[in-house]
Amino acid sequence: MIEPEADDDRPAGDRPPLVTPSGAAHARILSVGSYRPERVVTNEEICQYIDSSDEWIRERSGIVSRRFAAPEESVTDMAEAAARSAIERAGLSPAEIDAVLVATVTHPYQTPSSASLLAYRLGSAPAAAFDISAACAGFCYGISLAADMVRGGSARNVLLVGVEKLSDFTDLHDRSTAFIFGDGAGAVVIGPSDTPGIGPTIWGADGSQWEAIVNKKSWIEYRDDESRDWPALKMAGPTVFRWAVWQMSPVAQKALDAAGLATGDLDAFIPHQANIRIIDAMVKELRMPAHVPVARDIAETGNTSAASIPIAMDRMLAQGEVAAGGRALLIGFGAGLAYAAQVVELP
Ligand SMILES: CC(C)(COP(=O)(O)OP(=O)(O)OC[C@H]1O[C@@H](n2cnc3c(N)ncnc32)[C@H](O)[C@@H]1OP(=O)(O)O)[C@@H](O)C(=O)NCCC(=O)NCCS
C-alpha cells in the first residue's frame, strides 16, 4: 500500500486553490475550407429509381444536381480534405490545433469518433477530439462550442468540420428523400481574437418531433431484423417544411437581436441548405434587404446536412459574393429537431 504523503492530511482550507483555465477575450473564424466529391448526380439519374421528374424536383426543392462521394471515400476522407485546406489558410500547422470537432450523422461507426481519426491523420493528435450529433444544426452547434472553448481557455485553436456522406444513408427508392441529400465537407478553424467575431448562439431542440427525420431502425433493431433492411433516413417532409418555415425565422431573428444587429447590418445570410422554398420563405419572413447575398448552394449541392453552411461560406467568399470580415447570419436546423443560429464575422 502506498503511504499517503503528509500533505494529503492537510485540512482542505490549507490546500492551494484549484487552477482554472482562462481563455481569449474573443473568438473568431480564422479560415474556411471545403471539399466536394467529384461525381455530379443529376435529377435524371435520381429519377431512374423514383417516380418523379427533373421539373418536380427543381420546383419543389430547388435542387438541380448534388455530389455523391465514391464508394470507397469515407466521411473522414472528405473531412480531411476540407480540414487541410482550412488549417493551411489559417496559417497554422496541424500541431497547433488543440481540439477537433466533427459535426456529422453519417460517420458509420457508433464509436470511435471520426474526429479522433481525423486528428491523428492531420497530425493534430493528441488534440481533444469528438463528434457532434446534431444533424443539420451540427455545424452551428459546433461554432458555439468552439467559440466557448477558445474563450473559456480549454483550447486555443479549434478545428470544426461539418461533413456528411448521406448517400450511404439514403434509400434511393424512397421518393420523399432520394432527391434531397448530397455528400460533402466544410471546415473552419476557430481561434482567439482581440475583437468580437462570433455572436451569441440561439439554440435548442424539440424532441417531441424526434421522429420527423429519423433512421428507419436503431442498430439493435437492425441487428435483430432478419431481412437486414438498412436503416436509411426517413423524413416527414411536410412536417419538417412547416416547422422550418414558421419556427426557424424567429430563431434567426433572435440571433440577430442577441448580436445587437439588424438585417441591414448583414453582409450575407447563410442558412442551412434544406430546400430553396424554405430559404426563400425565411428571406421573406426576416425581410432580408435585397443587397444581402443569400446562400442558395442547394441547387448544386443538394442538402449536405452539417456540411451545407461551411461549403456555402467557402464558395461565397471564393466567388466574391461577400468579403472577408463581412458579417453573416448562420442558421442550421434539422433532425432532433435541433437548431442553432448566430452571427459571425467571416474569415
Ligand atoms: C420533401 C419536400 C421537398 C416535399 O415537398 P412537398 O411540397 O412538401 O411535397 P408533399 O410531400 O406534400 O407532396 C406533394 C405531392 O407531390 C408528390 N410527391 C412527393 N414526392 C415526390 C417526388 N419525389 N416526385 C414527384 N412527386 C412527389 C406527393 O405524392 C404529393 O402528391 P399528391 O398531392 O398527389 O398527394 C418538402 O416537404 C421538404 O423540403 N421538406 C423539408 C425537407 C427538409 O428540409 N429536410 C431536411 C431538413 S434538414
Give the topology.
Layout: E1 26-35, E2 39-42, H1 43-46, H2 54-61, E3 65-68, H3 75-89, E4 99-103, H4 114-122, E5 128-132, H5 138-152, E6 158-165, E7 183-193, E8 202-205, E9 213-215, H6 219-224, E10 233-235, H7 237-258, E11 268-271, H8 276-285, H9 298-301, H10 308-318, E12 327-334, E13 338-345
Parallel strand pairs: 4-5, 4-6, 11-12
Antiparallel strand pairs: 1-7, 2-3, 6-7, 8-13, 9-10, 12-13
Helix pairs in contact: 3-4, 7-8
Bound molecules: coenzyme A.
Tell me about this structure.
The protein has 347 residues and is α/β, with parallel strands linked by helices. The chain is built from 10 helices and 13 strands. It has helices spanning 43-46, 54-61, 75-89, 114-122, 138-152, 219-224, 237-258, 276-285, 298-301, 308-318; strands spanning 26-35, 39-42, 65-68, 99-103, 128-132, 158-165, 183-193, 202-205, 213-215, 233-235, 268-271, 327-334, 338-345. Strands 1-7-6-4-5 form a 5-stranded mixed sheet, with helices on both faces. Strands 8-13-12-11 form a 4-stranded mixed sheet, sandwiched between helices. It has a two-stranded antiparallel sheet with strand order 2-3. α3 (75-89) packs across α4 (114-122) and α7 packs parallel to α8 (276-285). The radius of gyration is 21 Å and the shape is globular. The N and C termini lie far apart (56 Å). Coenzyme A binds at residues 50, 52, 56, 60-61, 136, 175-176, 179, 213, 235, 237-238, 240-241, 244, 274-275, 278, 303, 334.
